[in-house]
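Subject: Predicted fold for Archaeal Nre N-terminal domain-containing protein, 131 residues

User T.R. writes:
Posting the sequence so we have a shared reference for the thread.
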Amino acid sequence: MSTVVLVEGCAMLAQRVTAALCARCKGRKLLCGLPRCPLLQRFYTQIQVLRTIDGKLVEGSTPPTIIVGERGYPRVPLLIAVPPSVWGEEAKTYDDPIGWWGQKSLDDILKLRSSMVTGFVPVHVSSDIPK
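User M.O. replies:
I've generated the structure tokens; pasting them so everyone works from the same file.
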């Protein structure tokens, strides 16, 4: 299994990094040639976000990140990603790959995507979306 990792730089080149290489490296040896391990960076960002959340309630505007799962059909999960404490138009930045292209570094993209909290609501496929 391969993971596609974007290499930071003007050309935004894509490089294939295998799961076996990640397992051998463990984020410390940087065998993929990247300046930092994107997996560890994502983990550290998620820990920082979890520290800012108080309790089970997360509030913020949702960018256009809504996913309908298929497991358990006809009762499927509806996943909604929310950047905590981000409101209005600013939330769109968290899910805008076209806007990121050439504008954001790998670090910035990882921070944006990793700081989103995803919750889910089980819904029946024939019902309306919960409000």
